[in-house]
């Protein structure tokens, strides 16, 4: 069933205009916030539906810098953790940002780049370097891909992670050069083994000293190289520039964004992606215009996209909390994310997270349900600063039926069947304990449904 | 064939059948099935355990051609001296940290296949791993893995145990991706069950609210629903099967050992699972290789040899084979960081009671290299074909896509 690729590529990337068949409403606004961020509460959705979809997208993209007071608060928290030096604790500092940031798309893209330029604390073993990289990715998350790639090539955590810190003139270390082409820019098959060897020579002498990047000219190979058809006495900056000039680059990024923002499957054809790829190149590899086009597009708001992604652990957990204005123990959440397959600062390998169906197996499915269980049993978990009972009452939600309807509206991308609704009612009624316990069990049940894993 | 402890078997059967009925799959388990199961002797089917060394294991420092001058010349710093290797014959010896496997070799329970690889080797971790997992190049369609296709070729069993299990925190390996069967991944037994005060209610909700047939047009939702069913079923079986295990073999305190001990428990409990998959990561030794590689090889060798001894004592030694591979070997010449870069062919290892044992194939010719890497003498699919045909008793040709002759691996 590959009807995605029968979509007209021209229509796919035109801006979506609401119609009477497909009006701009809470459902579509919730979709936009789930994908471009981590979900929105009902009040935010109400504001959004009063604007046009294009206006909401533009605001998301324009909010590309954190406000000073938020940044100060988030950074202070991180600095406290950094004093301890354990990268595992650092995950909690990032969870704080994910939970509270007003800059949703910026944070979503920071997470995207973390998976793209994947760097793992397991190998880097240095919380400060990992944090500096995270701040760097946030700073450029909606910026210039040239700058992002040039600077990540000189990022100390990346240098340590891909061994370029020990890339010497006499014996070039190929690791970084290969991944730059295979995983960051071009994709497998768009370069030769000779290109890897020659590109590695460009980066010789790039090392880390005192947690800072530096060029060691005694270890740099300044002789002539030939990379992807170009010859010269290239250094690392030239190497990155040549890779970025390759026409496969824009397709490679367009494909990755499509899978991240639009749908897990099927694979889009090159023809379908071409207009997005072209726009990215025409805007000289600026990220923001390409993402604006993507998030405004017909295809993004089409049936090919709605409910057609399996939520990552971060999307599921943070999305649920944010949509219900909930707060919880960030340490608990951070270690829980690691256990179900998306530890922040702990991608599985240099390829990052594969996403889609690979998020799901017996262990992670039970783990998702168990993590919600732990969070809902934790007394630190509050809803709009209150108990769940009180928070729902303030919204006029007083019965099991209205609670099921409310949770479904805030959290689900696909409808519940009548059978499932009646089972949920049973769950609520059979639960012993006070009203708060019954409502939390109901929420636990909804978040554990297969439908909740779709976003 | 050895019988297993009948009390744990019975307990396991009771709970697994009860579990299957309780969660609504194979709901009508007939009484005769229960009785037949009670009186059946232990499972006699053969089992394959795959150990994946992720990152590209340095084959030349695992099975060391200690007498070869070309080896000494290519490895001035990393080379392992003849006096240190655990000799297998006049050609090669095992890394000094592999005493456990060396003992198995003496007992005829280890077969080493040398210089295994394939034409036009790929040096990307992911692409090479995909080739080993699927037996297909990237130009071809890759919907499933070679073990997944093996699972698909087996007759489906109503109310049977999960046909394969992956133990680990990593992403599930492509090798066990199947079109018809969802293979569970578990990290540890304790995690593999619903927790929390409301777990009973949640279990019944998830079981009851799942549609009996897939009617939705959303493939992903169907996938999530069948995955949830699979998770609930597998969790009950595995929890029940792991109880009552006693073992006299002391396993080392390592992650791999812990996983292999869990597998021994499941096998001894009579689980009909035929394929187990575990991974040991860290073999991408571009720098300062010696110390890291030694630790990894020791962890692997000690864990695998403890498992093989344990299974032997428990009476399962003749029906379990442990196969180890890595996505590629490493470059023959060491690099300037006292490490090695991505290479091509390398050795594979099979352990267990059903093997002929010994060293198979010639030691790599280090004076005839391919871009600085070892050329393959034996195609990895020949090893797979031998395992599928001679061990698992299935036809390897449709699974591998071509016909391959068996190697003289199994007794």
Write up what this structure looks like.
The complex is a heterodimer of chains A (455) and B (411). In chain A, β3 (225-227) and β4 (230-232) form a beta hairpin. In chain A, the strands form 3 sheets. Chain A has a two-stranded antiparallel ribbon with strand order 1-2. Chain A has a two-stranded antiparallel ribbon with strand order 3-4. Chain A is built from 24 helices and 6 strands. Helix content of chain A is 58%, strand content 4%. In chain A, α4 (53-62) runs antiparallel to α17, α6 (87-100) packs across α19 (330-339) and α16 packs across α17 (287-296). With 455 residues, chain A is mainly alpha-helical. Chain A has a domain at 313-453. Chain B is an alpha/beta fold and 411 residues long. Chain B has one domain: Alkaline Phosphatase, subunit A (3-Layer(aba) Sandwich). Chain B is built from 12 helices and 12 strands. In chain B, a hairpin with a 5-residue loop joins β3 (86-87) and β4. In chain B, α1 packs antiparallel against α8 and α9 packs parallel to α10 (289-313). The radius of gyration of chain B is 22 Å and the shape is globular. Chain B starts with 5 loop residues before the first helix and ends in an 11-residue tail after the last helix. At the A-B interface, α12, α20, α23 and α24 of A face α5, β7, α7 and α8 of B.
What are the SSEs and their pairings?
The complex is a heterodimer of chains A (455) and B (411).
Chain A: H1 9-13, H2 26-36, H3 42-49, H4 53-62, H5 68-84, H6 87-100, H7 104-116, H8 121-124, H9 127-140, H10 145-152, H11 156-161, H12 175-185, H13 193-202, E1 206-209, E2 212-215, E3 225-227, E4 230-232, H14 236-245, H15 248-262, H16 270-282, H17 287-296, H18 313-323, E5 326-327, H19 330-339, H20 362-377, E6 382-383, H21 388-394, H22 400-411, H23 418-430, H24 435-448
Antiparallel strand pairs in A: 1-2, 3-4, 5-6
Helix pairs in contact in A: 4-17, 5-6, 6-19, 7-9, 12-13, 15-16, 16-17, 19-20, 20-24, 22-24, 23-24
Chain B: H1 6-22, H2 31-39, E1 47-54, E2 63-64, H3 69-74, E3 86-87, E4 93-94, H4 99-106, E5 110-117, H5 125-134, H6 146-153, E6 164-167, E7 185-186, H7 199-209, H8 219-241, H9 255-268, E8 275-281, H10 289-313, E9 320-326, E10 346-352, E11 358-360, E12 378-379, H11 380-391, H12 396-400
Helix pairs in contact in B: 1-8, 4-10, 9-10
């Amino acid at each position: 069933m590959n009807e995605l690729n029968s979509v007209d590529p021209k229509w796919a990337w035109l801006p979506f205009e609401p119609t009477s068949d497909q009006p701009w409403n809470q459902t579509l606004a919730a979709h936009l916030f789930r994908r471009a961020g981590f979900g929105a509460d009902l009040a935010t959705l109400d504001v959004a539906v009063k604007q046009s979809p294009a206006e909401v997208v533009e605001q998301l993209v324009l909010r590309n810098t954190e406000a000073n007071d938020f940044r100060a608060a988030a950074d202070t928290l991180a600095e406290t953790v950094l004093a301890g030096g354990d990268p595992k604790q650092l995950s909690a500092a990032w969870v704080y940002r994910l939970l509270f940031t007003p800059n949703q798309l910026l944070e979503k893209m920071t997470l995207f780049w973390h998976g793209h330029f994947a760097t793992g604390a397991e190998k880097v073993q240095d919380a400060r370097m990992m944090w500096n990289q995270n701040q760097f990715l946030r700073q450029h998350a909606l910026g210039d891909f040239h700058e992002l790639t040039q600077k990540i090539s000189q990022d100390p955590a990346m240098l340590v992670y891909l061994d370029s810190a020990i890339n010497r003139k006499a014996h070039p270390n190929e690791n970084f050069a290969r991944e730059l082409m295979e995983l960051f820019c071009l994709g497998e098959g768009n370069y030769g083994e000779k290109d890897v060897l020659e590109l590695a020579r460009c980066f010789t002498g790039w090392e880390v000293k005192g947690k800072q990047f530096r060029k060691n000219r005694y270890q740099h190979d300044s002789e002539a190289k030939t990379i992807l058809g170009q010859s010269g006495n290239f250094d690392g900056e030239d190497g990155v520039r040549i890779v970025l000039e390759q026409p496969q680059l824009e397709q490679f990024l367009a494909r990755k964004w499509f899978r991240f923002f639009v749908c897990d499957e099927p694979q889009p054809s090159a023809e379908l992606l071409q207009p997005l790829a072209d726009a990215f190149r025409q805007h000289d590899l600026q990220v923001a215009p390409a993402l604006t086009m993507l998030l405004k597009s017909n295809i993004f708001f089409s049936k090919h996209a709605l409910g057609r992604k399996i939520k990552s652990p971060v999307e599921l957990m943070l999305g649920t909390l944010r949509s219900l204005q909930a707060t919880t123990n960030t340490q608990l959440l951070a270690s829980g994310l690691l256990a179900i397959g998306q530890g922040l600062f702990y991608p599985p390998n240099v390829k990052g997270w594969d996403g889609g169906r690979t998020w799901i197996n017996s262990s992670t499915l039970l783990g998702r349900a168990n993590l919600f269980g732990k969070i809902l049993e934790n007394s630190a978990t509050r809803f709009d600063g209150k108990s769940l009972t009180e928070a729902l009452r303030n919204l006029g939600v007083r019965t099991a039926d209205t609670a099921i309807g409310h949770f479904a509206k805030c959290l689900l991308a696909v409808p519940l069947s009548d059978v499932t609704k009646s089972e949920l009612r049973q769950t609520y009624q059979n639960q012993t304990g006070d009203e708060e316990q019954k409502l939390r069990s109901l929420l636990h049940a909804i978040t554990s449904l297969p439908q909740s894993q779709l976003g | 064939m050895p019988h297993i402890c009948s009390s744990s078997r019975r307990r396991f059967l009771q709970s697994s059948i009860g579990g299957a009925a309780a969660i609504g799959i194979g709901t009508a388990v007939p009484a005769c099935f229960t009785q037949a199961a009670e009186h059946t002797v232990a499972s006699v089917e053969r089992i394959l355990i795959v150990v994946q060394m992720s990152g590209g294991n340095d084959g030349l420092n695992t099975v060391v051609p200690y007498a070869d001058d070309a080896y000494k010349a290519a490895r001035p710093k990393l080379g392992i001296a003849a006096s240190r290797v655990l000799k297998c014959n006049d050609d090669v010896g095992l890394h000094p940290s592999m005493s456990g496997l060396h003992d198995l070799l003496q007992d005829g329970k280890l077969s080493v296949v040398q210089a295994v690889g394939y034409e036009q080797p790929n040096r990307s971790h992911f692409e090479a791993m995909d080739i080993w997992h699927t037996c297909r190049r990237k130009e071809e369609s890759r919907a499933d893995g070679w073990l997944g296709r093996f699972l698909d070729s087996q007759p489906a069993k109503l109310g049977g145990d999960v046909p394969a299990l992956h133990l680990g925190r990593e992403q599930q390996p492509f090798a066990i991706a199947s079109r018809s069967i969802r293979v569970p991944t578990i990290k540890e037994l304790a995690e593999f069950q619903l927790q929390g005060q409301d777990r009973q209610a949640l279990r019944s909700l998830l079981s009851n609210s799942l549609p009996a047939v897939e009617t939705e047009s959303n493939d992903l939702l169907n996938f999530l629903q069948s995955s949830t069913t699979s998770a609930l079923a597998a969790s009950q079986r595995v929890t029940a099967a792991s109880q009552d295990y006693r073992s006299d073999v002391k396993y080392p305190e390592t992650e791999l050992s812990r996983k292999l001990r869990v597998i021994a428990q499941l096998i001894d409990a009579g689980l009909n699972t035929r394929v187990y998959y575990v991974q040991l990561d860290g073999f991408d030794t571009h720098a300062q290789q010696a110390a890291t590689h030694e630790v990894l090889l020791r962890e692997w060798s000690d864990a695998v040899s403890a498992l093989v001894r344990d299974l032997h004592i428990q009476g399962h030694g003749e029906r379990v084979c442990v196969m180890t591979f890595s996505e590629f070997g490493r470059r023959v010449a060491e690099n300037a960081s006292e490490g090695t870069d991505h290479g091509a062919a390398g050795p594979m290892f099979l352990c267990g009671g059903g093997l002929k044992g010994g060293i198979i194939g010639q030691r790599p010719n280090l004076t005839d290299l391919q871009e600085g890497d070892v050329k393959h003498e034996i195609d990895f699919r020949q090893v797979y074909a031998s395992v599928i045909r001679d061990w698992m008793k299935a036809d390897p040709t449709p699974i591998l896509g071509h016909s391959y002759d068996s190697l003289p691996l199994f007794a």
